[in-house]
Amino acid sequence: MSETHGHAPEGPARHRPLIPLREEGAEAIEPIHYRVHHLTSYRYAKPVSRNFGRAHVEPRATPYQRVLSHEVVVDPAPARLTAHTDFYGNSSTYLLVDAPHDHLDVHSHARVTVAERRYPLEQMSRPWELCTPEHWGPLMPMDALDFVHPSPRIPAGTAAREITEQVFTPGRPIGECLAELTALIHSDFTYASGATTVASTLEEVLAARHGVCQDFSHVGVAAARAAGLAARYVSGYLRTAPSAEGALGTQPAGEMVGSAASHAWLSVLVPGTGWVDIDPTNRTFVDQRFVTTAWGRDYADVPPLKGIVVGPPGATSTLGVAVGVVPEPAPGGPAD
């Protein structure tokens, strides 16, 4: 491979991220412990009578992440608050506020531990063509096939095939493909908050070449699926740096884009390694700065909060979101 951890990539001028490879004798990095607080806040111009909602805000256990605790707190107090686990193993919270109210605050409190991610050189060096389903073997989970096919927000036959042709060239190692896909989206698309909405289509994003993390994740998934690979949409959070006010009201850590709210990236299945996560928004492989909450075929499977509000005709609302992902001391150890 032309790209390894700690070495500059070869090839075109586009700056590709380093692939986090397992290196013999390298010292392991300790897990990082985080306190996570996600607040979604609605303010209604006129009181509404009922609120139904489902939130995907609970971090999930993964090979690199352990969930120590989680709690959802809703104000006003809900008439119903229940948990549900979907087909992909994501936990969501259903809420019902069944009395007149002029606001809705949904707090998610969690503590998680995030470990280092490193991938084996041999698997990341295999040609990408050997990562398609016909090469998976009998031990691969069959639910991964869902992530090979088109989905409601990522249809087949899009302009993303042009990206596929640039990235997935014959015989290219899968690790280099993922690094190039990350860099290409980062360089060819402009991050512009407010330029798109959750209803914006993939074709609109591909035509305009701007959007936010959700859009860039859809583009990456579409390009990988067009090559015949399994790719899924991942939602979660980025590490934030605490301000003087505490966990909420935080500022981004370093140059990471998207740490003020929910974030999104994508994951591609590499046989022998598992799912490898990349973040085109920040031109990086996913590492210990990321906290995973859920994954699905596309955004529609795992929105942070969706629901139905029953209220007077023409009632309007304002939305506020605040996220804090703050390192805290390990049990019995010093702070990160």
TrEMBL record:
InterPro entries (UniProt xref): Bac_transglu_N (IPR013589), Papain-like_cys_pep_sf (IPR038765), Transglutaminase-like (IPR002931)
Gene Ontology molecular function: peptidase activity
GO terms classed as biological process: proteolysis
A Pfam family it matches: Transglut_core
SMART domains cross-referenced by the UniProt entry: TGc (SM00460)
Record-annotated Transglutaminase-like domain positions: 205-282
Alphabetized Gene3D superfamilies for the sequence: 3.10.620.30
Entry keyword set: Hydrolase, Protease
Keyword field contains Protease: yes
Full protein name: Cysteine protease
Species this chain originates from: Brachybacterium ginsengisoli
